[in-house]
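testing teh design pipeline on a random one, pls ignore if ur not involved
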């Protein structure tokens, strides 16, 4: 949706859209992502349920501020990016494209986006409970089928060397069915301060991993730790959802020894960095100066 000139608001799980009226209906959870250059205003407020009279929806003028999952900003004429969840801006700033919030509580939300020196445009999103939660499936209820436990496979320690922009970096990685699997935080740490750096955060409420491209990675401890004698382990498919810049993506992943490992080529494609394989030297190359190619 075009929220204002030079600004774009992406809304997931939309079931009905009235763009001329800036009104949208969507099923929870709804991810709202801001895109655009020189955004001077990004704001979301929860307005509650409102009420309908004579075919019109009446809402309060203001509501409760919604906390963004990622809301970064930069000061004018400054390259450094700041995290507004820990650092409140004290003067005029530009907000960073890709900031987003996840809306889960049913009700009406006011969403505002505006580039510098442009009057803001306000959109209204009505978030509903998902049809699965409400039971409105349009079909007679039936007894759910029993779920089979995920099948485990054997993951073998990767023996290949890994070069990141030509420099050797030690990873604890595994090979499954001929593909290499890495921890997201290890990759984020290795790519930090490069053109392809990305942030990694965890949303425990939704069992979701959030990746934000172009943002510096914040270490949590334990990144790039390598066992002295890694051995083959059982790997179980993981059900964690992954969002890249607010959009859900499909990444093949396994839980190995309590950690999630993701197929390297899936991550490279999602974050757009180069990956090569040199058979003669058994070397994996990660190139942050190029984009992903098959």
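output:
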């Amino acid at each position: 949706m075009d929220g204002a000139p030079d600004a774009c608001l992406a809304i997931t799980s939309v079931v009905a859209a009235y763009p001329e009226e800036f009104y949208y209906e969507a099923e929870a959870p709804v991810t709202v992502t801001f895109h655009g250059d020189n955004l001077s205003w990004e704001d979301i407020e929860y307005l509650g349920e409102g009420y309908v009279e004579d075919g019109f929806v009446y809402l309060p003028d203001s509501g409760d501020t919604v906390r963004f999952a990622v809301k970064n900003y930069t000061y004018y004429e400054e390259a450094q990016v700041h995290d507004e969840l820990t650092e409140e801006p004290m003067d005029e700033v530009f907000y960073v494209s890709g900031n987003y919030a996840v809306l889960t509580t049913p009700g009406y939300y006011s969403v505002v986006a505006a580039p510098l020196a442009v009057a803001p445009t306000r959109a209204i999103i009505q978030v509903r409970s998902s049809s699965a939660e409400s039971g409105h499936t349009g079909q007679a209820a039936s007894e759910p089928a029993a779920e089979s436990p995920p099948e485990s496979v054997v993951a073998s320690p990767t023996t290949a060397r890994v070069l990141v922009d030509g420099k050797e970096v030690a990873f604890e990685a595994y090979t499954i069915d001929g593909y290499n699997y890495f921890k997201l935080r290890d990759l984020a740490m290795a790519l930090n301060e490069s053109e392809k750096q990305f942030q990694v955060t965890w949303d425990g409420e939704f069992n979701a991993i959030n990746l934000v491209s172009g943002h510096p990675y914040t270490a949590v401890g334990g990144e790039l730790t390598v066992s002295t004698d890694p051995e083959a382990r059982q790997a179980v498919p993981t059900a964690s959802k992954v969002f890249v810049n607010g959009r859900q993506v499909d990444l093949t992943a396994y839980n190995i020894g309590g950690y999630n490992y993701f197929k390297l080529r899936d991550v490279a494609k999602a974050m757009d960095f180069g990956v090569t394989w040199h058979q003669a030297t058994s070397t994996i190359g990660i190139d942050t100066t190029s984009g992903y190619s098959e």
